[in-house]
Amino acid sequence: MNSYPEFDLSGKVALVTASGRGLGRAIALALAHAGADVALGLRDRNAHGGLPAEIEALGRRALALQMDVTSLDQIFRAVDDTVARFGRLDILVNNAGIAPGNLAENVREEDYDLTMAVNLKGTFFASQAAGRVMLGQKSGRIVNVSSQAGFAALPTESIYCATKAAIVHLTKCLAVEWGKYGINVNAVAPTFIETPGTEECLADPEFRADVVERIAALHRIGQPMDVAGSVVFLASPAASLITGHTLVIDGGWTAR
Questions:
Q1: CA-based angle 165:151:228, to the nearest 5?
Q2: Which of 40, 130, 142, 177 could disulfide-link 19, Cβ–Cβ 3.0 to 4.6 Å?
């Protein structure tokens, strides 16, 4: 008889980028709740809002790291520091992302470059840094944060959409290359989630009503833990046969 699915992450070590607030914070807490020790990749390592203490209150170890994903030096140092502190790295969650909105005809080069640097380049090189550790271990889980914007066009977000679509395909490429080493690479693609990053646009009643209407099946704005649960699943032994997949968490938006 096969054993039952296992969702426990006890003994695992996770690194979550952009974990100081919003979605990243929820993911870090959910991983800790599932049993993992968590390294926190932060653009400013002091701006953690007490998150290490919250993780430690769950009985897990935490490490706040300086990790601006536009800096390759900081990316590789954060991975090295994680391994030095915990002895291994089992899970990487590439959560860092930005979305400076503008009509396509008005997009500034500096916004284009920064969006590509954070969303796509940062995801690739964080995966590379963690992947080198995981290759040696012959095991690991990488979960990238894409977006429903990788599947559906959002007006004024052409560059953001392009990076999130690229993450979907990058996820497949890394999964195919690294599967033989016991590394699973997947992604999640959330809809609009109530976070500090979406607070301003969702405060507009007309915009919010339109988003709720487009979330066709459930008609509600997502909460960070709605996404965090899927990340924990993909990082867990229960998802051992899933790789190269992007799990769309959109309440039915793209089903219309």
A1: 80
A2: 40
How many Å apart are CA 49 and CA 62, to the nearest integer? 13
Q: Quick check: is 160 catalytic?
A: yes
Residue 26 banded pLDDT, cuts 50, 70, 90: very high
Enumerate the domain spans of the chain: 13-249
Beta bridge pairs of residue 202: none
Residue holding tokens 């089992």? 90
pLDDT band, very low/low/confident/very high, at 192 (cuts 50, 70, 90): confident
Taking the domain 13-249, which CATH number applies? 3.40.50.720
Question: Is the model's pLDDT at 2 over the cut of 80?
Answer: no
| DSSP-derived secondary structure for 111-165 | HHHHHIIIIIIHHHHHHHHHHHHHHHHT-EEEEEE--GGGTS--TT-HHHHHHHH
User: What is the full DSSP assignment across 1-33?
Assistant: -PPPP----TT-EEEEES-SSHHHHHHHHHHHH
* 48: Cβ contacts below 8 Å, ≥ 6 apart: 19, 20, 40, 42, 64
The DSSP code sequence of 236-255 is SGGGTT--S-EEEESTTGGG
For the stretch 91-107, pLDDT in tens is 999 999 999 999 999 99
